[in-house]
Amino acid sequence: MSAPAAITPSTALCGIVLHPASHTRSPAMHNAAFRALGIDAVYLAFDVAPERLGDAIAGARALGVRQLAVSLPHKRAVMSQLDAVDDVARRIGAVNTVTRQPDGSLRGANTDWLGAVRALEREAKLDGARAVVLGAGGAARGVVHGLLERGARVTVLNRSPERARALADELGADAAGPLTALAGTSYDVLVNATSVGLGADDASPVDAAALRPGSLVMDTVYEPERTRLLRDAEARGARPLGGKWMLVHQAAEQIRLWTGREAPVEILSEAFDAASAGRELP
Predict the structure, then answer these.
(1) Which of 232, 194, 208, 214 shows the shortest CA–CA distance to 123?
(2) What is the rounded distance in angstroms from the CA atom of residue 247 to the CA atom of residue 126?
(3) Which of 75, 150, 228, 244 does the annotation list as catalytic?
(4) 165 DSSP 8-state letter
């Protein structure tokens, strides 16, 4: 993990809370961006089990942490630990960013939705597109909101169809059902917002035969770079898109929320690639 050359009493502390933490690329990315912007800050990963989330947020308050990213499995549970949650995050029902305000309070926001749509818009026009989102957790909620904001027609599919229907009804998606319903669904864009395929899990959330040739298939999982879903998508003639760009764009928005400055997307991308290869940027 790269970090500032010298840490002083004035160095701002930032980080990410998640469980497990071994796969995260966020410290390498944020620390590289801080260096590029000349920001005196360090970004660390904190492996926090679900039952310790309250302790972690209390610790962040006590230590004066300036910003925390929030990843699986904490995006919904963290909301009750904060002083305020912005309107978009409250509508989505998930927080992935906690920023300390000038008065010391902690405010929650969601940058996942922007990360998702900006990643997808690199490859496709979303307005009027038929989109399917797999999953019903915190990441899925952000993706569904973002697609709807960009004018897509959205179907939510989940292992538990009841949860898919609840999410669809709450956010205004067009339809919902079980994962097996993908085989009979027409779509232009498919987004996997489940954790299936993460790390050593070489599974796919759906059957390869349900992947449509010519569609854009994005996996929010970024480790490994090419998940089983993406390999199946390419074999079926679909366009695969890994989770890297969603992570990069949501991180850029997190930095903007804290500093008010535009983060260097190219540096974030290079730092992601370097971390994936087991090296640091010079």
Answers:
(1) 214
(2) 19
(3) 75
(4) H
As a whole number of angstroms, the distance between CA 261 and CA 238 comes to 36
Q: Is 244 a catalytic residue?
A: no
If you search the block for the tokens 């679900």, which residue do you land on?
Answer: 50
Angle at Cα 244 formed by Cα 240 and Cα 246, nearest 5°? Answer: 95
Token digits for 45?
Answer: 């990963």
Query: Does residue 95 sit in helix, strand or coil?
Result: coil
Q: What is the pLDDT along the chain (282 residues), one digit of tens a residue?
A: 455 557 888 999 999 999 999 889 999 999 999 999 999 999 999 999 999 999 999 999 999 999 999 998 999 999 999 999 999 999 999 999 999 999 999 999 999 999 999 999 999 999 999 999 999 998 999 999 999 999 999 999 999 999 999 999 999 999 999 999 999 999 999 999 998 998 778 999 999 999 999 999 999 999 899 999 999 999 999 999 999 999 999 999 999 999 999 999 999 999 999 999 888 776
How many CA atoms does the CB half-sphere of 161 hold within 13 Å? 8
What CATH number does the domain containing 29 carry?
3.40.50.10860
Query: Do residues 124 and 178 both lie within one domain?
Result: yes
Q: Are 117 and 238 in a shared domain?
A: yes
d(C-alpha 158, C-alpha 2), whole Å: 37
Within a domain: residue 117? yes
The domain containing residue 69 runs over which residues? 12-110+245-276
